[in-house]
Amino acid sequence: MNAAMSDDPILFSRDGHIARITLNNPTQHNALGAAEIGRFRDCLDAVETDPSLRVLLLTGNGESTFCAGASLKQFRSGDMSGELFSTLTDRLAALPIPSVCALNGNVFGGGAEIALCCDYRIGVDDLRLLVPAARIGICYPLNGLQRYVDKLGLGAAKRILVASEELPAETLLAIGFLHRIVARERLDAESEAFAQHLAGLAPLAVRAMKQILGGIARGDLDSAGAARLAQQCTQSRDLQEGLVAQREKRAPRFTGE
Q1: Which residue, 33, 38, 49, 119, is the most exposed by fewest CB within 10 angstroms?
Q2: Same domain for 64 and 36
Q3: How far, CA to CA in Å, does 82 sit from each of 74, 79, 113, 145?
Q4: Distance between CA 101 and CA 84 in Å, rounded?
Q5: For residues 193 and 9, what is the distance between their CA atoms, to the nearest angstrom?
Q6: Cα separation, 207 vs 226, whole angstroms
Q7: Is residue 254 part of a domain?
Q8: Count of alpha carbons within 13 Å of 16, Cβ hemisphere only?
């Protein structure tokens, strides 16, 4: 769906093995109110319950801002809270399939955490990031703070959150917030190509390794569960297909079985 043809602030579509969510309220810097958070969570539910989907591609509409995070207007009215926002970020981070965030513009506030919840982040080379929580007087919930430390390390987390530094794309690449920087005109093509690459991998192995690596990073790995996941991959038809495809020097046709 063309974002210009819809006034829905959250666009959702499926194309083959790839799901797409687009934040579509550029006049408000793609900020999220309570209704948008609910719609976003519904989209994630649809992704998780569709076994044909292997990758989520998340982006924003417009050239100015990827996402300005939670609506400050609704914070002032009491319709928004850090806990409500966390229902979205926790849900996105727990998605079993890999997620790619194509950052089409600047990243502010909770928009940075939404991007951080994704597995991979590709950003335009002129974007900047600013989390103004300390400038306003907001302390993020524990799960959000933990995510910054887990993903970026304590030093980078302090620069972004405690010091509220404004960081350019090159610095974000150096600290690991961004995985790749591209020219603006290449963002769609580069993020689509990477999503297609992920969609072509063995889905059982991808899901298993994402789940196991997440447990390792959080320090709550279920070793027995990890062993079961690895065994399922060893016994899968996908492994046999991958081995045959390698021998025949062709692209594998994985089915997730």
Answers
A1: 49
A2: yes
A3: 11, 11, 12, 12
A4: 21
A5: 25
A6: 11
A7: no
A8: 11
Structure tokens at 197: 């690459």
82-93 vs 110-117: helix crossing angle, rounded to 10? 20
Nearest to 38 by CA among 62, 64, 12: 12
- Which residues are CB-contacts of 174 (< 8 A; sequence separation ≥ 6)? none
Residue 256 domain-assigned (yes or no)? no
Residue 72 phi, psi dihedral angles, 5° rounding: -70, -30
- Residues 218, 222, 225, 231: is their CA dihedral positive or negative? positive
Q: Residue 114 is part of which domain span?
A: 3-199
pTM here is 0.94
Same domain, 35 and 74: yes
* One-character DSSP codes across 25-42: -GGGTT-B-HHHHHHHHH
Considering the domain architecture, whether residues 170 and 207 belong to the same structural domain is answered as: no
- Same domain? 185 vs 243: no
C-beta neighbour count of 207 within 10 angstroms? 18
pLDDT in tens, the chain (257 residues): 344 457 899 999 999 999 999 999 999 999 999 999 999 999 999 999 999 999 999 999 999 999 999 888 888 888 888 888 999 999 999 999 999 999 999 999 999 999 999 999 999 999 999 999 999 998 988 999 999 999 999 999 999 999 999 999 999 999 999 999 999 999 999 999 999 999 999 999 999 999 999 999 989 999 999 999 999 999 999 999 999 999 999 999 999 99
